[in-house]
Amino acid sequence: MGAGGRGSGGRGDRLVVPLLAFLGVMAYALSMAVVTPALPLIQEGLDTTPGGAAWALTAMTLSAAVGTPVIGRLGDLYGPRRVLLVVLAVALAGMVVAALATSLPVMLAGRALAGVGGGVFPLAYTIIRDVYPPHRTASAVGLMSSMLGLGGALSWVIAGPVIDWFGWRWLLWVPVAGLLPGTLLAWWIVPKSAGRPAARIDWWGAVLFAAWLVGGLTALTQAPQWGWADPAVLGLLAAAAVLAAAWLVVESRVAEPLVDLRVMRGRGVWTANVASMLSGYALMAGGILFPLLVQLPADTGFGFGGSATEAALLQLPASVGMTVAGFTAGMLDVRIGSRTVLLAGSVLTLLGYGYVAFAHSQMWQLYVGGVARGIGLGLAYAAVANLVVAAVPPGQTGVATGVNTLIRTVGASLGTQASAAIVAASAPVAGGTPSEGGFTAGFTVAAAVMAAAIVLALIAPSRRPGPAGRPPDLL
């Protein structure tokens, strides 16, 4: 195992963050996104319906949403390195099962196991806080946060060649090929850190938390297919509301809750969480709107008649900008604070969406707006993560960042569903070709969402540099 503790400059200190970023892409971001380009082929290969194939994505989303905060809490209790190795092993096993699946139930079981890989992110934030000195933590957290947007771009870039040359199943093996050596490197490089094994796990809180999340997110993801007035959707929403109320009661009464509600009410935490949800919306709104617009037939008068590859290439510069901005945000954090970084990112994302809402007749305009959006979201994602890390005690880092990641996932689901619904509603007839006004409205709503994030950035606590070797003070 790697030497090097907090700020030691040892092997672990130099390599830990690049390795964790790589693991984040392979274990979750790429593994999640790689299924999307292959969904029609999965439907055909497993002899299922479009809705059945879509569950290959939904199963992993639900698993990650439920598991991420719980895994973060386990990392706080038992040490993040130990839990990280277990998470990587489970995620790797799930990916292999999914890649080998010959039936839909086996595929879904594998994807649900693979969703555990979402726990890499809160564990990574805890490890970073343990390994790095305060003045370097923000840069490391920023780079880690930016990985959430990189997997989607990579999946579309590699999907065409892999599917054409090897078949869709090989697309599912790509993250396995990266995660297997990555897990071995994690065992060797990631340093140990102490947990709190005497603490107890709030199992009732965990069960209730999982139950209301699964009910609510299933309703949210299936409503477009089933209909919002469908009894199953309404029943799931009602059950989620009741279970969420029961969970809040349990968490307010147990001595060591899964999620400490007092910590969640802190100004630095709740503002970051709501901003995270809005940023998740803005990320996935573009993930829906840009490819649809590029691939619409040119004879519509506003579409570009592009291929899936051209739509993917449009996303690539934005994703690179997001990654670079995430890393840069950490350095900016030391100088100007996370609140100002969040404000800058929100403004830039708003301008990007506002621009393409009114200027989308040329591809270069989409590139300009998309890159502004990517850089802005890279700054915002890093800022919300750093706000949470700075606002909670070290023993709450894993669960607090896990909740933040979960809320971002909820926002992403809202962005996907709302943007698709806005575009679909603009079609003159149900199921027909959408109108240009639908895209203008979708981009405008995304800009308005980031306007709300600007307000949150102004409310969030500011920071001033603390004495050497200490985290900044929160005002």
TrEMBL record:
Its main location: membrane. The chain crosses the membrane at residues 15-40, 52-71, 83-102, 108-128, 140-158, 170-189, 201-220, 232-250, 270-294, 341-359, 371-393, 439-460. It comes from the Bacteria. It is a multi-pass membrane protein. InterPro entries: MFS, MFS_dom, MFS_trans_sf. Pfam families: MFS_1. Keywords: Cell membrane, Membrane, Transmembrane, Transmembrane helix, Transport. GO terms for molecular function: transmembrane transporter activity. GO terms for cellular component: plasma membrane. The keyword Ligase does not apply. Residues 17-464 form the Major facilitator superfamily (MFS) profile domain. It is found in: Cell membrane. PANTHER family: BLR6921 PROTEIN (PTHR42718:SF46), MAJOR FACILITATOR SUPERFAMILY MULTIDRUG TRANSPORTER MFSC (PTHR42718). This is Major Facilitator Superfamily protein. It comes from Thermomonospora echinospora.
